[in-house]
Write a structure and sequence with these properties.
With about 180 residues, the protein is of the alpha/beta class. It is about 45% helix and about 15% strand. It contains eight helices and five strands.
């Protein structure tokens, strides 16, 4: 039987003739606690692996489990620097088992990130509205701002120290 395009715990349960609750417990490592057979647990995990089962982000959100999704807000999509930055962020996210949700920098875009229950927010660019960030910070979700502009209480800001850079440049030129 070929794997379904979007395997679910319910489909795994149906395929094996067991309950969806048992599948859920087996995949979460808790089936032994209810006395499930090691052979049944092994079958469930094998089908899940063969079918490349991935938990639903929507279901994880309902259970209060982190979605492993980071929101990335880009202020200016026309700036080629941000294309390079997004590429680097995607590489790092994939390597750590996260997904990125990319959006612009408007108030509506903040609402979208809240709706998708992202685990954290990365701001790429300058001059984001600070009032919109307060809900993320109050909920304990990390916010990182890559760029210049006002500092947000509770957020981490990464930016270039232009004054130090200019001093180094002038020192280098003088030494030549």
């Amino acid at each position: 039987m070929p794997p379904p395009p979007y395997p679910t715990q319910s489909l795994i349960a149906k395929r094996l003739g067991v309950s969806q609750g048992l599948v859920s417990r087996a995949l979460a490592g808790r089936a032994e606690l209810i006395g499930a057979s090691p052979l049944t647990i092994k079958k469930i995990r094998r089908i899940a692996s063969d079918w490349d089962y991935q938990p639903s982000v929507a279901a994880l959100t309902l259970r209060g489990v982190p979605t492993r999704t980071m929101g990335v807000m880009v202020k200016n999509f026309d700036d080629p620097y941000f294309g390079q930055l997004i590429g680097a962020l995607q590489f790092l996210a994939r390597d750590s088992g996260h997904s990125l949700l990319l959006t612009g920098g408007t108030r509506e875009d903040f609402t979208s990130l809240q709706k998708h229950r992202v685990d954290g927010v990365i701001l790429a660019g300058s001059d984001f509205p600070t009032s919109d960030l307060s809900s993320f910070i109050q909920e304990g979700r990390p916010v990182v701002h890559i760029g210049t502009g006002p500092l947000f209480f509770g957020a981490t800001q990464i930016c270039m120290d232009e004054e130090a850079g200019i001093k180094e440049l002038v020192s280098y030129l003088v030494a030549l």
